[in-house]
Amino acid sequence: HVQLVESGGGSVQAGGSLRLSCAASGYTYSRYCMGWFRQAPGKEREGVAAIDSDGSTSYADSVKGRFTISKDNAKNTLYLQMDNLKPEDTAMYYCAAEDLATIFVCHIVKPFTHWGQGTQVTVS
Q: Of 32, 42, 50, whose CA–CA distance to 95 is shortest?
């Protein structure tokens, strides 16, 4: 049973920074893909960034150069460092995980099976 638990959200002024964490447990994929997604009120969920078990990353154009996805394998934790935050980054942020054998390529446009409950980020 895969469990994903996000933390690190909060309120910050424009130009500030936050680091989100996602503690993962219960999966035994030899190769995997993990990602961050967000959903603002009244908008569809959008992919933010993804990283595979080899460390390859992909980002949405809207966050390139401002957000960095990373992982700590020893701690089974996924991170999203968010710098130079903008009001339009305000959303609920979710982490997700998928077996790379299922989707073949790790990217934010791919379907993910396992999701966390989310953490709120508000930028004013």
A: 50
CA distances from 77 to 6, 40, 64, 120, 121 (A): 10, 24, 21, 18, 19
- How far apart are alpha carbons 77 and 25 in whole angstroms? 9
Q: Are 57 and 39 in contact (CB under 8 A)?
A: no
pLDDT bucket at 11, cuts 50 / 70 / 90: very high
Mark 53-85 as b/e (b = at least 16 C-beta within 10 Å): eeeebbbbeebeeebbbebeeeeebbbbebeeb
Give 38's strand partners.
46, 93
Identify whether the C-beta of residue 36 lies closer than 8 Å to the C-beta of residue 95.
yes
Each residue's pLDDT tens digit, 56-95: 999 999 999 999 999 998 999 999 999 999 999 999 999 9
Place of tokens 């959200």: 9
